[in-house]
Amino acid sequence: MVQQPKRNMVLTVLILAVLSIFCALPFLSLIASQQAPIALILLTIFLSLALFVQWRLDPGFTVCLVPDRKMLVWIGITGICLVYIAASCFWSSNPADSLQRLKRLGLLLAIGFLAVFAAQRVPPASHRLMLSVVFAVTGFAALFVSEKVFGLLSNTIWASESDEFKAQFLNRPSTYMVMLAWPAAYAAHRAGKNLVSWALVISLPLVLFWSSSTSGALSAAAGFGAFLVTSLNRKAATILFGAVVFVSVLAIPYAIKNEAFLNAAVSAVRQTGAFSAAHRLGIWNFVASRSDEKPLFGWGVDVGRTLPGAEILLGDVESFSPYLDKLDQTFPTLRSSPALPLHPHNAALQLHLELGVVGAVSFCLVVVYAAFSLAKIGSPSAARYTVAWATSWFVIAYFSIGLWQTWWWALSAICLIQFTYFCRSCGADRYAPTEQCKHR
């Protein structure tokens, strides 16, 4: 029989080994910068293993293994959303693809909930371990060196200079940088390194404005603005965030068809000379027009690839034709560009197209509720970072990504897990078992 001191030593080694892997966030974040879903799975395994080992082997470990009320509420909200998305598969133009997307999204959410559950209950990180997340962001420098010196293609913001990279991962590197930087800045703050934290916060928009990613620069700048506003008044900042989400999501289908709005947007695009921006104006106008055909419930989840008529070129989109005449000189190849390549590159319009007004309103409610929840998970100072992250998240979703992309939700989950872990105070009192909640 193993003696108690020896058993405790073995237990301590096992727990520290598992937690050291989890807290080696440079390792996980560098994986996330290439494959976010794989990083999320690894993070979930490490956290779950740490919780399981401590629960089974440490006699002094007492923690409630029943999900708390807030998590149950979120599970309920997620379940309702998935039910509606599942229902949309029945009227989808391609039910098979819609069902496949639903399965991936459901599995990803289940993994994310498991990781958050474990992150709430494993021992809180020390200041030294908190600082490790800072190196997750600075670890991108290693990728930069490998690319610049050795010519290796990597998912860093500087890889956007590569034509090959642009064709496959446009805006993805800047998205990784923005999403991972806010948890890193908060971890530095929690570790008492406020100078490091502020350096990350201030340098983020500066670095991204130096890159060629417009959406990355906008999201970093918006996040920085939200950080400052939340520092002054947390409640006002979250209310302002909610108002912006509702107005921008519900108004975009009408604004993108408005003549005055489009003329102003076309003039701005011509001045910048950004082809991707001009192309997206055309995509958004086409998507808004098609959304009008099924405004209430949409065409079905993930139908962008198979939407009837999506294969046409922008030159054949009647509603955008007057504006193409103004853009021809600056962008001569714009007419021959697809009207809808894969997805609309705008979460709000994608929701209107695929899930209708019902889906768009539901999305607004969930995002706003999530922002208010994030603003309350830690101390008042934590709200600056969580609201800033939520703002950057929304801007990226609004201007850049396809809403259902697996890597996007996996990366979002990784950031939420980090916030959950680092927002906890020292000790696990919140999850200590009650008389009705004992693990043995």
Automatic annotation (TrEMBL):
TM ranges are 12-31, 38-57, 72-93, 105-123, 129-153, 198-229, 236-256, 355-375, 382-401
Q: Which GO terms describe its cellular component?
A: membrane
Report membrane topology. Multi-pass membrane protein
**Which keywords does the record carry?**
Ligase, Membrane, Transmembrane, Transmembrane helix
- O-antigen ligase-related domain residues are 199-364
Q: Which GO terms describe its molecular function?
A: ligase activity
Name the record gives this protein? O-antigen ligase family protein
Localization, UniProt: Membrane
- This protein's source sits in the domain of life called Bacteria
